[in-house]
Task: inverse folding
């Protein structure tokens, strides 16, 4: 059991989501934030960094949004549906855009972009699963 | 001229927004992030902290989203309209919810909540102004 | 293998740390950031929230510093030893203080604080291990 | 009066720092975080991006640490001296390193780096002033 799942088990109140889906989305947001930060850094180290400008921006934006989403999802006290949904939509949008960009470079042989695209896809799916469950 | 406006003047490319509106939105996001962080802390120091749980959560969520929005808006290279719009929507939603909550406590005499509500209103308006300009 | 370890394997340059120690520290920082965010939220939901003010502040500070440390450690291009060391020291200090506070409440029966203390101890140790390796 | 100074005026408890010095340091951290984020983005847009790799990394690290420092300084409830000092040291180190790097590129004609160096110097000084006052 992950620490995030342990924390949900010890939470003294109720929460609106299925615990497993919520723990998965938090984990996916954190993984995606770190992977995107590392992918931006790896792109920066590549010889053809000039061709990776768009990837670096998408990586950094996706990392920023995923970090915020992980924090918002980790708070269940006084849960607000409208805020949570808007944050999940923003996170899914950032993951979609970054995942598309990284998948393209991954097909060209950039391994860090291929790994990053996987993290973005997992996170986008986890956000959309929570959105579907919340509606 | 703020440092954010100076940075926009020295940016080597083009950007899709009016520079003054963009600088105002970045400044408003940063101000709101700090004010919300400080308001959560002031609520925590109040005797009636138990009545301010919802305010603290809104403050912390709003601070997280405003921080992410300020970072995304500060990046103009390889600008992505869908990501920016989703982030602005999330920021406006967080500011709306936090501003409503803080305004309520401000009317009850909580001065830090009154100041924080002002920061949330300014930020929500700045986000909506950029959204209107981008459409 | 974690995604962080995969990203280190695909990094196109060299990095100064042992890959396993670096991946462990990044993972520990991320886990601690999330656990502390969730612990602050669980403390806020407790009836005796007024007795947990110090714990909430420590949680929020530790989460902020761990988030920054995870990001700095995820960047290896143009690695700077002085910055990395100062960030690791700050992260270890925040984890030490938060871990002590949470361990105290954990002994009193607060389960989320007990779990959080474990995350703080793991992260402090991982930061100190990297500091020792870097010297 | 800035909103940060207003928030300090409405804080219901005491705080260990001179209010003006604290408000200046919070403002400097926030300004530096935004300026560094924008400078990384401007560097990325430059033709000679390959020569600016080190500057981009310093910018991103400095932005991450300044964001964390602004948040920690914005919390005065259950103030912890050891954590605050370690965070201020980390912020001063990140600002020193980024300021040196940006000053170098500023002298070569990169205007955004020149502006960013000013923000880093202001923030480093504000952190050191608080550290001196706290000792």
Result:
């Amino acid at each position: 059991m992950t620490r995030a799942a342990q924390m949900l088990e010890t939470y003294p109140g109720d929460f609106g989501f299925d615990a497993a889906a919520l723990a998965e989305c938090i984990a996916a947001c954190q993984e995606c934030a770190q992977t995107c930060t590392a992918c931006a850094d790896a792109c920066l180290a590549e010889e053809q960094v000039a061709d990776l400008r768009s990837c670096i921006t998408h990586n950094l934006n996706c990392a920023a949004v995923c970090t915020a989403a992980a924090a918002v999802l980790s708070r269940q006290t006084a849960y607000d549906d409208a805020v949570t949904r808007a944050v999940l939509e923003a996170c899914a949008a950032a993951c979609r855009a970054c995942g598309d960009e990284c998948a393209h470079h991954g097909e060209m042989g950039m391994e860090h972009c291929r790994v990053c695209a996987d993290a973005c896809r997992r996170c986008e799916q986890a956000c959309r699963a929570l959105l579907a469950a919340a509606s």
Remarks:
- The mean pLDDT of chain C is 96.
- The domain at 3-9+16-134 of chain C is CATH 1.20.1270.360 (Substrate Binding Domain Of Dnak; Chain:A; Domain 2).
